Amino acid sequence: MTDSIMSKAATMEIPINSNGDTGTLPEDDSLEQAAKLQWSLDEQVGSSRGTRDLQQVMVSGPNLNETSIVSGGYGGTAEGIIPTSSIKGPAVRYNAEFNKRIPVTGLGSNMHHSSSSSSMTAEELTRGVAVEKLETMKKWGLNTYKCTKQMISERFGRGSRTVDLELEAQIEVLRDTKRKYENVLRLARALTNHFYNMVQTQHALGDTFADLSQKSPELRDEFGYNAETQKLLCKNGETLLGAINFFVSSINTLVNKTMEDTLMTIKMYENARLEFDAYRSDLEELSLGPRDAVAMARIDAAQQQYQVHKEKYERLRSDVIIKLKFLEENKVKVMHKQLLLFHNAISAYFAGNQQQLEQTLKQFNIKLRPPGADKPSWLEEQ
Q1: Residue 282 to residues 35, 90, 276, 289, 321, Cα–Cα distance (Å)
Q2: pTM of the complete model
Q3: What does residue 312 show for φ and ψ, rounded to 5 degrees?
């Protein structure tokens, strides 16, 4: 056994000096050789055990087909060589000193973390939008409920409402005036249509008289006189149509734009008044109830809402007063001009005073369209 150990030691223990040359063993130094042999055997056993532990630790490692891990020391057994093709699982670094597995994280984990963060950010954004919409719907529903309750209470005579008698009277006058002006506008348009048809009839009649004047020598003068008269009436009629159209356009602007704009502000004011009364009634009901901590918190919130709607109501009330004032001034100015135009044009036409009729149009800066200008050109029709 000693011979086999000595022969194995002779094959394994080949000392190398600093220059790379092999050293020589003294023949008579047997104790030193035996100590070195024992140390070499212990190192092989420890290395083999470390290799087994490392193989067990790295069983779940990655598949690296072209490399292998070899345990340290010469003369190790086959168990000291671990083919990496058999290693599966996440990559680890083996720390022999502490016998721990240290996971190796790379670019993939960073990308997964980044995508997770972006998805969480998008989810939070969506959740925030949904919460905001829910709060808006909640406020709208609460406000609608309070206003509906106040409206029903007012109609059945159980609820009180804020009334401005002077302003309410002005609003009623405006609505009545708008109805009457709409009737004037409707009649003026009807007059325009009828008069336009009459002018077109006179124009056709004048052309017929002129044609008969050429084909009836015995009645040439009579047909000629009537043709000239119808053409003159047709020309004056077109001038009058220009004046009436200007009158209709101005009344339409006053009724359907200026008055309508004021009425829209009045509608907003009335809605604000209803909301103000609804929150005022709510505050009054809460004030008559108990005064514990929860009730006081509700009263404070109702007081804030009441103040907000009160300011809105007063602001719109001021806007309505100002618009009514300017509307009245504008209405007087516009109607004074348009009624004077309508009177002078109608009087001049039926009096047969062509010069005065043309002067009336110049006075109000009305320009007549040339014949056929009402019809679009062939290029505009394409």
Answers
A1: 103, 67, 10, 11, 28
A2: 0.60
A3: -65, -45
